[in-house]
Design brief:
alpha/beta, 5-stranded mixed β-sheet, 5 strands, 44% helix
């Protein structure tokens, strides 16, 4: 039975990142308490350290990203409301493997591996899959704290045009917006593995929603290509991909059990939302946010 996940201690975070000090976090906390619409009383020092780290230790950028991050968690209800393992979410986890890999990349980054387990596109639900991915990610980051970088790997070997047709455009736009503007990571790369013949159609679909900075760190790997192992050691992958990690079904079952065991974490996380009625200057809407030009948070290009 999986254990209840414990939060990574802030003291160890300071040891891990010598450039972040308690004084930095205290100053961010002081500002946060002046922002009545933000859920400051529900944010730990680790939460603030993660924001500060992903914003390259910039106080001003941290303030902007912190506000946007929790605003999006409030407005993007498709992904961040009712975060429980119900039949729909469990079905998505049976359909798509969402696996944080235990072995860091060659450069010491953490990597998440996603792949279809069920090739039947009729069973694919993109919004619920994205919701599940965010849940797995949140629990993982809560347990490990900051990472020097993050890699997302999407294995396309079971994908069909039927799956592409089921990519709800609003959900896709929101996921990509959150990934680029407000996800609390230093994103170092997005890798598409076993690219299918219709990969150009996938790129045409997502291109209107991504900025040049993200486009520059997208890597497309052809079937049987071993280029990926320049980034991520082969041993990190599941057994079915020739790696030394667990098999797909074991990883799937462990992920489902982990989420079910940690329901209290998601209950507490649901309190970290914005009260728009208290926001100085008026409420924010999804339309307002998608109209924002420019970016607070920069992506890293290696």
């Amino acid at each position: 039975m999986p254990e209840i996940v414990k939060q990574f201690p802030i003291e160890k975070e300071y040891e891990k990142n010598k450039s972040i000090t308690a004084d930095d976090i205290n100053k961010l906390r002081e500002w946060l308490m002046t922002q009545k619409h933000l859920p400051g009383e529900h944010l730990s020092d680790l939460d603030l350290a993660i924001v500060f780290h992903c914003c390259d230790n910039s106080s001003e950028v941290s303030k902007q990203v912190l506000d946007l991050h929790y605003t999006l968690r409030t407005l993007f209800t498709t992904f961040f409301k009712d975060r429980i393992v119900d039949l729909k979410l469990e079905g998505a986890l049976y359909n798509v493997l969402i696996a944080p890999l235990p072995t860091p990349t060659v450069q010491g980054y953490r990597a998440m591996y996603l792949r279809l387990l069920d090739p039947d596109s009729r069973n694919f639900n993109f919004p619920v899959t994205a919701k599940a991915m965010m849940m797995v990610f949140d629990l993982w980051q809560y347990q490990e704290g900051t990472w020097p970088g993050f890699i997302l790997m999407i294995d396309m070997d079971q994908s069909t045009l039927g799956h592409v047709a089921k990519l709800d455009l609003m959900s896709l736009k929101q996921v990509l917006y959150f990934l680029q503007e407000a996800m609390l990571i230093r994103l170092k790369g997005v890798h598409f593995l076993n690219a299918p013949y219709f990969m150009d159609k996938v790129m045409m679909l997502i291109k209107p929603f991504i900025k040049k900075a993200l486009m520059d760190i997208i890597h497309i790997h052809q079937p049987k290509s071993e280029e990926l192992y320049d980034f991520v050691p082969k041993k990190a992958f599941p057994k079915e991909e020739g790696g030394e990690h667990k098999d797909h079904n074991t990883m799937r079952d462990e992920t489902i059990d982990l989420l079910k065991t940690n329901t209290q974490f998601f209950k507490e996380e649901s309190l970290r939302r914005v009260n728009e009625a208290l926001r100085a200057g008026g409420k924010k809407t999804v339309e307002d946010l998608f109209g924002i030009q420019g970016s607070f948070k920069k992506l890293d290009i290696d």
